[in-house]
Write a structure and sequence with these properties.
Jelly Rolls, mainly beta, 27% strand, 4 strands
């Protein structure tokens, strides 16, 4: 339920939220990018540079969301696919 509230990401890191259909940035001190994805990894919606103290829309088909540092999802488009695997 907390996501990145009170936390920071290192460059190249992301936070996977599963299940997740909506995010907010209350309590955040910096903007973030958010990818909402179907269970098969298809990107359904992208929030770019979501400012603090905001509520994103509900993405009903989303199986998970990925929170990233602002600008990290600059090249990601709806319809792209993401793969989640073990960290090294």
């Amino acid at each position: 339920m907390r996501g990145l509230v009170g936390r920071t990401l290192e460059p190249g890191e992301a936070l996977l939220l599963q299940p997740c259909k909506q995010v907010h940035t209350f309590g955040m001190a910096y903007p973030i990018d958010v990818l909402f994805c179907a269970r098969d990894g298809e990107v359904l919606h992208v929030l770019r540079r979501m400012k603090p103290r905001r509520v994103g829309r509900v993405v009903w088909r989303a199986g998970f969301a990925i929170e990233l540092n602002a600008g990290a999802a600059e090249q990601v488009q709806v319809g792209d696919r993401v793969a989640i695997g073990p960290t090294i």
